[in-house]
């Protein structure tokens, strides 16, 4: 057997640099100096006889050989972490950084506070939350999981149901006085609609979906901005009920088209389909699933 075959020195540093896309961030995650990380990776490259990274003053990218080696080593490091965790889980204090991507008012109002409580239970754990509706690459962007709602298209990901949601159509009294109130979803074609990420709204009647193509003067992927625009009389909004709770209670917005609202919308916990999921991510996911097990819109 090759005497270097079982030499694991530098592999953890290599995988962390690849995940973090940089030596400085890798050193921060590992809690050591940049020079230590660089030295370990350089020694690994010398043993292998090939460059694993293409380095420049602005970026660090995996070479072709580095890409292939990373795919194998990532599973190795994850498997070792899981083996360690399975032995010490009864006395383990979660450490490191948990990174989550999420978007929407539900995530802001309900999921983020739940993660705050989870962080309080694990004082050694750092929780980073990125609010963005963009599609994330879990490996390249370094996210452990994401919170998304609606229909999911990427079958390569694992999706766990977090909560069932209901949609609500609303408008301001001023808008309805000036433009009239639509009595059926198709009537929205004659109205100004406030669009988030999708200009096809789906309603329901007698168990059948009613898709309606809408248009309007204001488009934004932030729920609060849509609510503010709706209150200002710019048009009709159609989003999860939780987005409008306060506005409905104070009377600045009124529900419309209620017989046609759909409750077939789900919020999901989404993560990469991989063999080993870090314990910090598994425990956070289990915590959220338990927290929202009886949640209602």
How much helix, percentage-wise, in residues? 25-40%
Order of helices and strands: HHHEEHEHEHEEEHEEEEHEHEEH
The name CATH uses for the topology of the largest domain is D-Maltodextrin-Binding Protein, domain 2
Distance between the ends: 61 Å
The secondary-structure class comes to: alpha/beta
Strand content: 15-25%
Mean pLDDT: 87
Q: Describe the sheet with the most strands.
A: 5 strands, mixed
CATH architecture field of the largest domain: 3-Layer(aba) Sandwich
- The tally of strands reads 14
**Quaternary structure state of the chains depicted:** single chain
Domain HTH lysR-type: 6-63
Protein name: LysR family transcriptional regulator
Keywords: DNA-binding, Transcription, Transcription regulation
GO biological process, one term: DNA-templated transcription
Written account of the structure:
The protein has 297 residues and is α/β, with parallel strands linked by helices. It is 38% helix and 24% strand. It has 3 domains: 11-89, Arc Repressor Mutant, subunit A (Orthogonal Bundle); 93-165 and 266-291, D-Maltodextrin-Binding Protein, domain 2 (3-Layer(aba) Sandwich); 167-262, 3-Layer(aba) Sandwich (D-Maltodextrin-Binding Protein, domain 2), CATH 3.40.190. The protein is built from 10 helices and 14 strands. The strands form 5 sheets. It has a 5-stranded mixed sheet, covered by helices on one side. Strands 12-7-13 form a 3-stranded antiparallel sheet. Strands 1-2 form a two-stranded antiparallel sheet. Helix 5 links the parallel strand 3 (96-102) and strand 4. Helix 1 (11-20) packs across helix 2 (23-30) and helix 1 (11-20) packs across helix 3. The radius of gyration is 24 Å and the shape is elongated. The model has no long low-confidence stretch (mean pLDDT 87). This is LysR family transcriptional regulator. Keywords: DNA-binding, Transcription, Transcription regulation.
